[in-house]
Description:
By secondary structure, the protein is α+β, with helices and mostly antiparallel strands. It has a domain at 4-111: Gcn5-related N-acetyltransferase (GNAT) (Aminopeptidase, 3-Layer(aba) Sandwich), CATH 3.40.630.30. It contains four helices and seven strands. It has helices at 15-28, 39-45, 91-105, 120-129, and strands at 4-7, 51-58, 61-71, 74-82, 110-116, 132-142, 148-155. Strands 1-2-3-4-5-7-6 form a seven-stranded mixed sheet, with helices on both faces. A hairpin with a 5-residue loop joins strand 6 and strand 7. Helix 1 (15-28) packs across helix 2 (39-45). The radius of gyration is 15 Å and the shape is globular.
Amino acid sequence: xxxxxxxxxxxxxxxxxxxxxxxxxxxxxxxxxxxxxxxxxxxxxxxxxxxxxxxxxxxxxxxxxxxxxxxxxxxxxxxxxxxxxxxxxxxxxxxxxxxxxxxxxxxxxxxxxxxxxxxxxxxxxxxxxxxxxxxxxxxxxxxxxxxxxxxxxxxx
Length: 156
Ligand SMILES: CC(C)(COP(=O)(O)OP(=O)(O)OC[C@H]1O[C@@H](n2cnc3c(N)ncnc32)[C@H](O)[C@@H]1OP(=O)(O)O)[C@@H](O)C(=O)NCCC(=O)NCCS
């Protein structure tokens, strides 16, 4: 039985920690048409006092990350990913449910996120958790081939 833990104490001011998270994030997005974040992207989050994250550990190794901002009662999920080899085993749902509970406890009442319109896995999970589509941003994303896709804005 693997040991599953969620921690908020992964230090993003520490470059080594950020490199680990960037590696996980880039493998998570490997089979998608989106790119994962760099270590510098993660380190930037440590500069913003409104941005927080949870890391999901499986047998003490980081396999999932969710980052969010919380200002007063408004929260936004900034990124959310499970390492490629660990996907579709229930870990994403576990991390998201934990995070939504934590956000509610911290006073988050309106929780928003943005997801690429062709990201069926993520859309399925968000819909299952109770997020509703509130808006669509046409041609918001442009991939490396210049192909544009919409962004779906969801609210919990
Ligand atoms: C989206 C993501 C975080 C989901 O995490 P996960 O651990 O793979 O998901 P879970 O195993 O917890 O599955 C939960 C739900 O997600 C959806 N889902 C998961 N895998 C799916 C698949 N292969 N196809 C369609 N829906 C899927 C289903 O609704 C599933 O519920 P169900 O098992 O009752 O059908 C993960 O797939 C991921 O990291 N993807 C790449 C990065 C990404 O797209 N992040 C989101 C950006 S907005």
